[in-house]
Amino acid sequence: MRRPSSIPWGIAFLCLVFLPSCQGGDSTPPLVVQRDSAGIQIVEAMRPLWGDSSVWRIDPDPLVDLTLTGSGPAHEFFRSGSMKQRPDGSLMIADRSSLEVRLFSADGEFLGAFGGSGEGPGEFRSVSVIENAGDTLLAMDSDGRVTVVAPDLTVVRTFNIAPLTLDLHYLDSRAILPEPRALVLPPAGVAGRIRPPVPLILFDLEGERIDSIGEMQGPELYISGGSVGVFFGKSSHVATMGRRIFSGANDLMQVQELDMSGSLVRILRIPGYPLDLSAAQIAAERDFLLDRLSPGSPFRQGFEDAPASDTRPAYDDILVDPSGAVWLELFRGQSEQDQPQEWLVLDIDGTWLGTVEIPDRFTVSDITMDAVLGIWRDELDVQHPQVLRLMRN
Hints:
The protein has four helices and 30 strands. The protein has helices spanning 7-17, 19-22, 279-290, 300-305; strands at 32-37, 40-45, 56-58, 64-65, 80-85, 91-95, 100-104, 110-115, 127-133, 136-141, 145-149, 155-160, 165-171, 175-180, 192-194, 197-204, 209-217, 221-224, 226-229, 236-241, 244-249, 254-258, 264-269, 315-320, 326-330, 342-346, 352-357, 362-367, 371-377, 383-392. It has a six-stranded mixed beta sheet with strand order 1-2-23-22-21-20, with no helix packed on it. Strands 3, 4, 28, 29 and 30 form a five-stranded antiparallel beta sheet that branches. The chain is mainly beta.
């Protein structure tokens, strides 16, 4: 009797071992789907690479705590704002109580400061924004006056930009992009929900206007006598990296990448990202804010009448780390600040990596390749500017 051939059995065995392949491919959706549309690259992240658990982690034990690395007024902080790492590894921080910008070594030794109360060169009425411009330092007052400082902390010049500016972003072309806030002056008779556009304008380090590169949507506001914010109102945010600009309206989990002329180059998005907003969450937000107003406050009626968005904002800030990864701070309402702060991370190619949880009572200001900089508040509400280790496993 003829012995059956072993070839079909071998094929059957391989199909059992590699069953998904023999059934026409893995049913797991791809990480990203890319396509081009009119010369614009669209990258859609379909699922997180890390799944449900975070692979990157922030160690809550600080590498540096500027409150503890020395003593005296230089190591005392109150109402401190922006904290950045300089190109040489040193640390700088804006302290609004002393109206100073202080410089520290990488290990926390105080090196010097500039500022103080006043309106003269190098003085401030309120300083909360600082930015690296190569080895030059920029510091902005509340009225939009920018102070340019040399590496040795010598004041080089000052110039003025729009008074309602949230932040400054430097581009490698020696240009700065102010992040604007809308100034709402509606015509008589205008009422209800509005979202005025705000311009994006590049300036050089002399304070001269270079060019307008478009506009972005301003914050959602409700006009009724005065103006108040919409509950869970949408807004827009900006970040820069090299010669690229990252801009996004947080209606969706999406960021647009622009070149120096303002032309759209790439869109990074997570389609279908859940942004559901319940009636209970809206009520909790309204009650939270009303509880903090006095009975006679002129804003009370506005908050009582203000509408809410149909969905929650996707994120509340954008940062881009030196690798080109885009970090999006997941939005939390005022009534949700006791929930863990998380940042969603998109890799440089648009892959959705996952989320990184921030240690409790810590506010992120800057992200490097191996560290996160920001302010931690202890149980007595004392501020501790810290550098925390970022482990990218």
